[in-house]
Amino acid sequence: xxxxxxxxxxxxxxxxxxxxxxxxxxxxxxxxxxxxxxxxxxxxxxxxxxxxxxxxxxxxxxxxxxxxxxxxxxxxxxxxxxxxxxxxxxxxxxxxxxxxxxxxxxxxxxxxxxxxxxxxxxxxxxxxxxxxxxxxxxxxxxxxxxxxxxxxxxxxxxxxxxxxxxxxxxxxxxxxxxxxxxxxxxxxxxxxxxxxxxxxxxxxxxxxxxxxxxxxxxxxxxxxxxxxxxxxxxxxxxxxxxxxxxxxxxxxxxxx
Length: 256
Hints:
alpha/beta
């Protein structure tokens, strides 16, 4: 550990970067991260809450030097909580109710092949909205993703919400296969950078798959304080191979 360079940080998205979407991290990736952590600092920043993050990665606050769930609204450093922020306190109950009511009416009138349950998931720092409902099966999730790509279901809903709630200064970020996040502007993944002082790091490398404009990795990927690396095929092995070329830690031949 004496050779660890604490002035370089590799910061990772979860889905499509460290794991397949909503799947559990592979043992090979865990071993790789452990080896990488001996050379540089590592961190994770995901849009999901800490419970979901732990379902995919394990005990993320202890596995990473920095662990950010909900884009950094819940923040850990060296396994200890260092910050927490609330959407309710920021927006107020009346505005929050206005958004939720509009969404439920909109989805009720939406004509898509199937609908399941949990269309609105309330998180500490954001709303996660899913036209099909988060309770869908993996097969239904995959089918909706194709349908959405062909018919712009999420994109259209976002455009309408931007107009409807222009006064609330919200950001809409499409990520994953079935949903999108809604949060106050500035509460995207760049929020976590406030816990990473410029004076502490020479380089912050960010790795994510949704780096295109409107994707939930775009803001931090293109931020002047980060060196962005796009995982265009959304495969964790691609992430590890990019890391090998940057930091010299050999990537495994394959992942299980």
